[in-house]
């Protein structure tokens, strides 16, 4: 897709998320009232549905600098203002400064509402859900997933998995739910456990709270609140084909992120049991030396961090996919669409360019311009926005990547209802 054409479209009349016709809006009664909106999406032909949304005030690229200046306590100079339209974003959502108790209550309400809406989009009652896997960069509470499940009416016996792999969290969760090859000896094989069951997978990111603990001007402009949760029945509505998970630690701290979650610091991935039915998968991060929540090297640093390794992981999975199609007697079967983490438009287009040079070419639509970078939520929001166009039997590639640095890439086949 032509970059200039996309930038022109983004600079045009893209409405705020809250102005979309199917968005249900309400005010969450915290700190005088916080706007919340959710959109439910269902494709009955493939038997998959979900819900996505956001909370807080909507700031476009013109009004954002004033908000950031207030948050930093000093003006955002012209030379510090990013060309956000060129990076694929026209707005994002932020909240005012809240107390810890208010943050917790707000995000518990948001999370439980998203789980309920996602379940209903699949025709399930919350009490029918067998598992919930949620990616979060900086959870507001250690047992956040357990708390939102309880508030949503999901059974206490349901498996709960909290995944802290930054922006890769939701795709990491989907990989765990579908890919039996990720099971470790001596621990539960999550994919085998969830085969044929009703599973909610997503990302819930209160990034306005998270970035409030930083003075990094790039992060403050790029990130915002967002959440997306989908419902799948592994082996039925969504079938695993091939996949890979990969860690390549960010030694230089190009994207340094504070860990607001427990980590034993003995390995990159720390898997621990929170409660009998609650597992935490936590990624080791290169944390900011200044103690703040996030510190970025800038857009070019992000390109350096994510593109080279990201292209290699996608290439490995795509080659495995082609080999599988050959074995299945479907050598001409192709990936219908790739759902790629929306770090920024330039990163995604550069990945597409490098992949094309290697003979790998599939659609990588840009779908989340009205949210900003919403970390682990972006893949699920993008998938839900693409979902109405998908057909039974379509093969989809999910490409997740995030700070740390963590990568999950998998190809799946969509079933039918």
SSE order and pairing:
Layout: H1 3-10, E1 24-28, E2 34-43, E3 48-55, E4 57-60, H2 64-72, E5 91-94, H3 100-121, E6 131-135, H4 144-152, E7 159-164, H5 169-178, H6 190-194, E8 199-205, H7 207-211, H8 217-222, E9 226-232, E10 238-247, E11 255-257, E12 269-275, E13 278-283, E14 294-296, H9 299-327, E15 335-340, H10 345-357, H11 378-386, E16 395-402, E17 406-414
Parallel strand pairs: 6-7, 6-8, 7-13, 15-16
Antiparallel strand pairs: 1-2, 2-3, 3-9, 4-5, 8-9, 10-17, 11-14, 12-13, 16-17
Short description:
By secondary structure, this protein is of the alpha+beta class.
The Cα radius of gyration reads: 20 Å
Q: Please tell me the overall pLDDT.
A: 93
The geometry reads as globular
Q: Give a quick account of the main beta sheet: strands, pairing sense, barrel closure.
A: 9 strands, mixed
CATH class: Alpha Beta
What string, H for helix and E for strand, traces the elements in order? HEEEEHEHEHEHHEHHEEEEEEHEHHEE
Q: Can you tell me the number of structural domains?
A: 1
pLDDT < 50 stretches:
none
Biggest sheet: strand arrangement: 1-2-3-9-8-6-7-13-12
Annotation field: number of helices: 11
Q: Please report the distance between the alpha carbons of the first and last residues.
A: 33 Å
- CATH architectural type: 3-Layer(aba) Sandwich
Residues in helix, %? 25-40%
Proportion of strand residues: 25-35%
Question: How many beta-strand segments?
Answer: 17
CATH superfamily: Thiolase/Chalcone synthase
Structural class: alpha+beta
Classify the fold: give the CATH topology. Peroxisomal Thiolase, Chain A, domain 1
């Amino acid at each position: 897709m032509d970059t200039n054409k996309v930038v022109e479209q983004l600079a045009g009349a893209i409405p705020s998320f809250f102005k979309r016709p199917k968005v249900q809006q309400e005010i969450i009664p915290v700190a005088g009232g916080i706007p919340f909106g959710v959109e439910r999406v269902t494709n009955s032909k493939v038997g998959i549905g979900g819900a996505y949304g956001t909370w807080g005030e909507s700031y476009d690229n013109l009004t954002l600098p004033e908000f950031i200046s207030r948050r930093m306590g000093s003006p955002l100079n012209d030379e510090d203002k990013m060309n956000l339209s060129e990076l694929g974003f026209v707005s994002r959502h932020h909240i005012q400064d809240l107390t810890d108790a208010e943050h917790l209550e707000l995000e518990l309400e948001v999370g439980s509402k998203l789980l309920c809406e996602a379940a209903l989009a699949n025709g399930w009652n919350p009490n029918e859900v067998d598992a919930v896997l949620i990616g979060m960069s900086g959870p507001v509470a250690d047992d956040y997933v357990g708390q939102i499940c309880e508030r949503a009416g999901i059974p206490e016996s349901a498996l709960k998995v909290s995944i802290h792999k930054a922006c890769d969290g939701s795709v990491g969760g989907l990989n765990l739910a579908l890919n039996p090859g990720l099971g470790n000896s001596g621990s539960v094989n999550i994919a085998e456990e969830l085969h044929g069951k009703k599973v909610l997978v997503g990302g819930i990111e209160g990034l306005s709270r998270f970035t409030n603990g930083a003075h990094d001007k790039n992060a403050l402009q790029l990130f915002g609140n967002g959440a997306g949760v989908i419902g799948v029945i592994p082996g039925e509505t969504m079938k695993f084909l091939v996949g890979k998970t990969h860690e390549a630690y960010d030694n230089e701290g190009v994207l340094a992120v504070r860990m607001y979650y427990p980590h034993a610091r003995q390995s990159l991935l720390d898997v621990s049991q929170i409660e009998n039915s609650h597992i935490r998968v936590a990624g080791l991060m290169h944390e900011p030396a200044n103690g703040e929540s996030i510190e970025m090297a800038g857009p070019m640093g992000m390109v350096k961090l994510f593109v080279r390794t990201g292209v290699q992981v996608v290439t490995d999975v795509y080659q495995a996919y082609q080999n599988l199609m050959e074995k299945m007697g479907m050598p001409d079967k192709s990936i219908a669409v790739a759902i790629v983490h929306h770090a920024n438009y330039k990163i995604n287009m550069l990945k597409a360019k490098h992949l094309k040079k290697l003979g790998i070419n599939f659609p990588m639509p840009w779908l989340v311009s009205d949210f900003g970078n919403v970390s682990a939520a972006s893949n699920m929001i993008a998938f839900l926005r693409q979902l109405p166009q998908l057909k039974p039997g379509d093969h989809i590639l999910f490409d997740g990547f995030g700070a740390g640095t963590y990568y999950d890439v998998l190809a799946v086949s969509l079933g039918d209802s």
